[in-house]
Amino acid sequence: MDVQQNNGAWDSLSNKLEHWWDAIILRLPNLAVAIIVIVISYFFARLFSKLLLNLLRKKMKNRSVRRILSKMLFLLILCAGGFIALGVLDLDKALTSLLAGAGVVALAIGLALQGTLSNTFSGVMLSFMPRIKIGDYIETEDHAGFVHEISLRNLVLRRPDNHYVIMPNSKFIEEPFINYSLQTRGRVAVTCGVAYGTDLRLVKKLVTDAITADFPPQPGEQVQFYFTTFNDSSIDFMVRFWIDFVKKSQMYEAQDHAILLINDLFSEHNITIPFPIRTLDLPPNPSIEIKNTDDGK
User: Fold this and answer.
1) Domains of the chain: total
2) Residues 146 and 207 in one domain
3) Domain identity same for 75 and 151
4) CATH of the domain at 213
5) Do residue 168 and residue 262 come from a single domain?
6) What are phi and psi of 182, to 5 degrees?
7) Which of 51, 116, 142, 243 is deepest in the core (most CB within 10 A)?
């Protein structure tokens, strides 16, 4: 009885192995085609990743982002070739299961690395944004400086005091910022005040002529002078003019020069720049009682 059972098991195993062998023999052409597909996809992946890398060198200065995008394209083409190879082998069920598993794994990874992936995609977006590049002077709500580096996680600013600010890409891209390097010309303003009783028309002409001479406007630009308010001790005005302006230090230099110019101009023409004065009115003969706190010791 045992011999018969052993013979039956052996026959069943032999039949199954023979069936598998026949299946392998029948699928040898498909296997060869699948291998060819994988090899071709590998060479295509290398070719297109190199082409993308060369293209990104002209469009993007961030080396790390260029490399990661090139590798992503390489893996994408290679995976596509693997899926085609599985389809050639008629492994549709395995392909479906693999795709489902990959989707679950991708979802789990996305949830676990939500912040990191957000910074990564923000870094890629920053690298492709035409309005920000390495060396630009930008100003956010809290920080200002030159763009030193854009990585896949952080944007690095070098402040004018030579300290570095490192902020996550997602935080930077979600907030408004000013890029002073987009335009080579910018308008700055200087405010001042003159005493009551001053010839205001003379002040306006003197300041406008002096600023125009020292900061000549280009076509389409003009020096603008406005009296703005009657203050407690002065009549205030504002003068606006254009300068070459791609970083804050140029604005400070221009304002410094304009303030010195206006101060010298007013001194030359005896025009008073008032300042607040507090007057104390005392009675004619104030009686002040002085207490001697010295106890003789």
Assistant:
1) 3
2) no
3) no
4) 3.30.70.100
5) no
6) -75, -30
7) 243
> CB under 8 Å to 156, separation ≥6 — which residues?
147, 148, 149, 150, 164, 165, 166
CATH at residue 155: 2.30.30.60
Q: Which domain covers residue 149, as residue numbers?
A: 131-179
125 within domain boundaries: no
Model confidence pLDDT, tens digit, residues 106-140: 655 555 445 555 555 566 666 666 567 788 888 88
Distance of CA 53 to the CA centre of its chain: 22
Kind of pairing between the strands at 178-179 and 185-194: unpaired
Q: Using 50, 70 and 90 to split pLDDT, how confident is the model at 268?
A: very high
**Same domain, residue pair 263 and 211:** yes
In this prediction, what percent of the chain has a pLDDT beyond 90?
Answer: 26
CA dihedral (127, 129, 135, 138) in degrees, to 10, reads: -120
pTM: 0.56
Is 290 inside any structural domain? no
- Size of the chain, expressed as the number of residues it contains: 297
Whether 89 is covered by a domain: the verdict is yes
- Quick check: is 286 in a domain? no
Token pair for residue 7? 């013979």
Residue 218 one-letter amino acid: Q
Query: How far is residue 82's CA from residue 76's CA, in Å, rounded to a whole number?
Result: 10
Contacts (Cβ under 8 Å, ≥6 apart) of 255? 188, 190
Q: What is the dihedral of CA 278, 283, 287, 290, to 10 degrees?
A: 0
Please tell me the distance from the alpha carbon of residue 49 to that of residue 57, in angstroms, as a whole number.
Answer: 12
